[in-house]
Amino acid sequence: GAGVSQSPSNKVTEKGKDVELRCDPISGHTALYWYRQSLGQGLEFLIYFQGNSAPDKSGLPSDRFSAERTGGSVSTLTIQRTQQEDSAVYLCASSLVSGTGYYGYTFGSGTRLTVV
Amino acid sequence: AQSVTQLGSHVSVSEGALVLLRCNYSSSVPPYLFWYVQYPNQGLQLLLKYTSAATLVKGINGFEAEFKKSETSFHLTKPSAHMSDAAEYFCAVSDGGSQGNLIFGKGTKLSVKP
Q1: Please, what's the b/e burial string for A25-35 (b: 16 or more CB within 10 A of its CB; e: otherwise)?
Q2: How far, in Å, CA of A101 to CA of B26, rounded?
Q3: Which entry of A37, A69, A100, B31 is 20 to 30 Å from B93 by CA?
Q4: CA atoms lying within 13 Å on the CB side of residue A56
Q5: CA gap A86, A67 in Å, rounded
Q6: Which of B6, B44, B45 to mutate to test the interface with A (most CBs of A within 10 A)?
Q7: Cβ–Cβ gap B100/A31 under 8 Å
Q8: Quick one: B109 exposed, middle or buried, by C-beta within 10 A (0-12, 13-18, 19+)?
């Protein structure tokens, strides 16, 4: 598509429930990234996919967080047993070339997750 | 390891005044540096990037940034602020290595007073 699409744009869930956040990157972009943006905390790297390589999961904060990318395109970030501290905006980005970051990232508008 | 420090979480200027947003980085290798802007309820948009070419980089909307290796800085400037510049600005560094992920600063919120 023309841009990075994320859904839903807003999600309110009860503590303890599982949630799935979806990211549809720009067609042809080989790299896909998930970041978490908390108030006053900037952007926190979560996970990165590059082509068919094993993802870099070094930023995932706990084993309640997982992500997959099917067919090198759409990605789903899953948070199990949500906690209130998971409340944040989850941003997805894709890029044409990974490694050099030369092209920069194209970000989606994010999913605002609220855990009540 | 790479890191970014943005001085000032909130900067306020008058319309028409100079905008200066500060960014200092730490990198063990020649860095790639970026500035992104985020308008309310939107994702981040690339303003400009430094990738070891010219040290003075011009971006969109009249913004520019100068890479100063001796000061490990990459400050963002605009000669004359416009109301539409009110947003949050993020500085980021990439080591250009295979990991490929950007390390972001905590952001600076710019307010523009009429």
Answers
A1: bbeebbbbbbb
A2: 17
A3: A69
A4: 19
A5: 15
A6: B44
A7: yes
A8: middle
pLDDT digits (tens, 9 = 90+) for A31-47: 899 999 987 678 888 99
Residues 6+ apart with CB under 8 A from A80: A18, A64, A65, A66
**Max Cα separation, chain B?**
45
**Across the interface, do A42 and B105 touch by the CB < 8 Å criterion?**
yes
pLDDT in tens, B7-66: 999 999 999 999 999 999 988 777 888 999 999 878 899 999 888 778 899 999 999 999
Q: What is the number of alpha carbons within 13 Å of residue B9 lying toward its C-beta?
A: 5
Average pLDDT over residues A50-69: 91
What is the spatial distance between Cα B113 and Cα B82, in angstroms, rounded to a whole number? 9
Q: Do A100 and B9 touch (CB under 8 A)?
A: no
Contact B112, B85 (CB under 8 A): yes
B 4-23 near A (Cβ less than 8 A): 9
The answer to whether residues A55 and A47 touch, using CB atoms and an 8 Å cutoff, is yes
**At residue A63, what is the residue type?**
D
Residue B27's pLDDT is what? 80
Structure tokens at B76: 């963002």
